[in-house]
Fold:
Amino acid sequence: EPTCTEEGVMTYTCTVCGETKTEAIPAIGHTWDEGVVTTEPTTEAEGTMTYTCSVCGETYTESIAALESEQEDADETSSSSKTSSSEDESSESSSSESSSSESETSGVKTEDSANLILWVALAGIALLAMVAILLTRRRSGREK
Structure:
């Protein structure tokens, strides 16, 4: 049997003479889970995300970027508010109100309709291919 990282071997035996033949089966590769945050990031240090293979249990880790400090966020906010006019602020508040009401009414968009269109197109192409094969076989049968 193959594992995640090592190939397996299939052995065939002739039922008449008993001769055997072996064939390599490729390694199946890891099946990683969604990952678990093992160390939360802070403003002073990166965090760690650990992924585990559901087949063999092997793990690997990735870094999670450190968080921005609240002081940096406050500095950015105060400098941007100093440069904006009161008209900009009123237009931003009205546009944010309209966009929040739009998002409440529009619901979640899942792109399911795009996938459905692709599947229907694929089914149509498959149907056309089958018709072409049948017509080709009928024509070749008549020519004989």
In short: Residues 81-109 have pLDDT under 50 and may be disordered. The chain is about 45% helix and 20% strand. The helical segments are 70-83, 86-106, 112-143. The CA atoms of residues 120 and 126 lie 10 Å apart.
